[in-house]
Amino acid sequence: MGLWGMGRQPQTTQVAMSPGEDGLIGIPFPEHSSELLSCLNEQRRAGLLCDLTLTSRGARYSTHRSVMAAVSLYFRNLFGAEEGEPGDVGSVGSGCSVCQLDCVAPDALDALLEFAYTATLTIRSSGMRDVLKAAQLLGIQCVADACRDILGETKGEGDEEEEEEEQERGIVVGERTEDIVQSSRRKRDKQHILKSRLSHLQPRRDSPSSSPTAELPRAPTSPGYDEYSPPGGQNGGGQHAGWEPGVINGSKHWTPGDTPLLVQAETGLSEEEDKMGPPPLPERGGVAGGGRKRKSQTPQQCPVCQKIIHGAGKLPRHMRTHTGEKPFQCSACGVRFTRNDKLKIHMRKHTGERPYPCPHCPARFLHSYDLKNHLSLHSGARPFECPLCHKAFVREDHLQRHRKGHSCLEVRTRRPRRGAGSVGEAVMASSLLDSIPLSHASAFSRSPPPTLGRSPFLPDVDGPPIPLHAMPLLGPRGPPYPALLFRGVEVPGGPIEELGAPNATHGPPGPQVSWGEEEEEDNEEEEDEDEEE
DNA sequence: CTGGGGAGGGGGCCC
DNA sequence: GGGGCCCCCTCCCCA
């Protein structure tokens, strides 16, 4: 949704126009998200629409709850719990709340606020540790990670996977940032990624009620702070704070000494890191073996869901799944799509084009996959068999639905045929894995399935008073939350210390697929032996 | 409960 | 490297 009064000139070259003459067109505004952040920062500095005041040892900072909730797990959980109980405290959306954060150094808090609104962390190396501590307390993991990188600190036990993640995620620090400067194109992408992350992390809510506050008290900043601020002031002239070349160039001469550092927020992979290590294993086991040949394209990691996206140019496409941006609109019915090829397929509905005819009957299909499924009907092949009740299905997803639907409990009376060379044998390998009963799955200690596919944030079902459901979804880290004194918004359900419960430290799924296949194979082998006996 | 269509999303290939 | 095109998988919905 672009704001006409806010966005710049739309990228008319990327306008997706459908064949229709008078149809609606979707005009993307790539700069919208960055300008939105810039505008928010201007509002913060002017004290406009600020509905949250942070205090630290006498210093006061006006800010926006939605922005803080977008960048900080602490505030997200805090406000999430708060809004989950309407009628709780009258502060909800009704005025300016005050959060006292005396355990966070004022300089660090100021730096984190700047980061929240500019995507750039400007700190002195001497204050690095304070910022690290503050970022940990407030659950701003990317900042904490970057600080750890700079400080050369290693994490605690069992964090190896996290460090690997960091390497893949490519937090750009120090000289490595110059790689970004060299490529304005990549920079735009990274900018888009970060803004997308913000727009993703921030639930779609109505704007907070207007609550003008007094002039924003300038935080006590370290000497040299302004010197390294973007020229012309933050966001001056509608520029994109934190990503302008001037900002980057201002940090060219970084040294480990007591000079301010500019730490770019989470970005994509740097080119150097692109070369680090082999690309991650495919999610499904069937591909690596004998399916399509995997081209060694540069994998990129989504800064939002941490998913590895294979293929050059695929990350922007993936990011639209988080931002909800649908630039491609059907001229006939107005339905919007995130991808041009999906719109193209959709248009077949209106044109009547069904490019996949069945050679055996008059049936024609919109998708090649539908034809493939349809051909199974003619052949009579039902390659997808329930391992428990042995009911066979034409389609794999129907088998999955069968397994999920009524939790097939029928006794296994017949062993599935092995090596029958049925249609989709290779697919069966993966479907067998998916068909492992829950009891087996638990016995195998399979990692929990990725839950970031469609809804990044799980609904608050039956959790503790302060929702921690989103924590494992936001990465394997669960920052400890101290007893931060918060006035104006009362956290229902008890003290905030409960936030510190590290209830989730899920690692990446790992080689679960091959594991499961081996288990299944082993079971089959055992059964073979039993049968022979 | 099942078959089928549509849509969303990821990956490979190619330009 | 970005983007188009295609294939594939998965999920949702409907009859």
UniProtKB/TrEMBL annotation:
Task: Indicate, by first and last residue, each region the UniProt record lists as having compositional bias (Acidic residues).
Answer: 158-167, 516-533
Alphabetized, the UniProt keywords read: Metal-binding, Repeat, Zinc, Zinc-finger
Where is the C2H2-type domain positioned along the sequence?
300-327, 328-355, 356-383, 384-407
Gene Ontology biological process terms from the UniProt entry? developmental process; positive regulation of gene expression
SUPFAM superfamilies the UniProt entry points to = beta-beta-alpha zinc fingers (SSF57667), POZ domain (SSF54695)
Region Disordered, as annotated, extends over 154-302, 492-533
Instruction: Give the BTB domain ranges.
Output: 50-125
Matching entries from InterPro entries are given as: BTB/POZ_dom, SKP1/BTB/POZ_sf, Znf_C2H2_sf, Znf_C2H2_type, ZnFinger_BTB_dom_contain
Question: Does the UniProt entry include the keyword Zinc?
Answer: yes
State any single GO MF term: zinc ion binding
Q: Enumerate the Pfam families for this protein.
A: BTB, zf-C2H2
Segments of skewed composition (Basic residues) = 184-198
Task: Respond yes or no to whether keyword Translocase is given for this record.
Answer: no
SMART domains reported for this sequence:
BTB (SM00225), ZnF_C2H2 (SM00355)
Tell me which CDD domains the record gives. Answer: BTB_POZ_ZBTB7B_ZBTB15
The protein depicted here goes by the name: Zinc finger and BTB domain containing 7B
